[in-house]
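Risk register update: the risk of archive-format incompatibility is retired. Evidence:
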Amino acid sequence: MKKNGILWVWVFLAGSFLLGAENVESNFPVITRLDVRDLAFNQYMADVENGRRRVANRARTGESASSLAEGLTVYAYTPNETDDIFSLAARCNIPYAALTTLNRMAHPGALTGTLLLPSVPGIFIPESPESDLERLLSSAREENTGVPITISHGGKKAGFLFIPGADFSPTERVFFLNFNFSFPLRTYRITSPFGLRRNPVTGTVKIHEGLDLAAPAGTDVFAARDGVVTDLGEDPIYGKYIVIRHGENWVSLYGHLSAIHTTLRSPVRTGDLIGKVGSTGQSTGPHLHFELRQNGRAQDPGKLLFRNNSR
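Archived output:
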């Protein structure tokens, strides 16, 4: 359906997208499992085959972007713990660029909640880009190459510029695949990794939920990724500390600082100066205690940090 030149794609989803029982539809296209026993998945795969064929034949048929966008259908699927964006893309026979841009994923690790599955390959650029990847996508493409669409789910509307058949450029692909956290120090020495260890102050054996990065007192500490400062202050264990939220699922913590150079609720970008290395709190010498948490659970920073800094 078109309204004021914008194509509307109506999607009815279950779960967290629904605002109330009055929004529940009896025919919403929700896929419960990615196999032939699921009728919705069978229909989705038929839609994908049709969409891919139309895109592939576009040079011969001359089909317009608007016509391809009108054939777009969107389904919903909740990934399980073993799913990742690449295996899902392969199983659904749809490029991962289409999945990630429609779901506004800035990096491969951002796969959480209900996933929207488009039937036509292409790139979805939001009207209001928020992440660095979305800003890169927006700046690299002309508006006249795509079709403005609005996807409505759960009573909420999201506007995109849909470019049928488009895929990540080499630069965009590298940016997406390498969009990990950056090291918060330019020079450092890892003195205590993530995992089980004996606390050097108390002597107790417990999980060390971050990395200890030794550096001279006063060394600059930088934000590891774009985000917003949600907490800072002084703690008996962490000493002077900063907490930055990165989207809905990730937070980073910077502890034992000698000085804090940011303020509560301030937006920060990757590489912004936020503090100085110190030895405040429970510490045996100057170092930065750095933590990463996903949905409240500590993750090993060593597996997520993008090593583009000198040691």
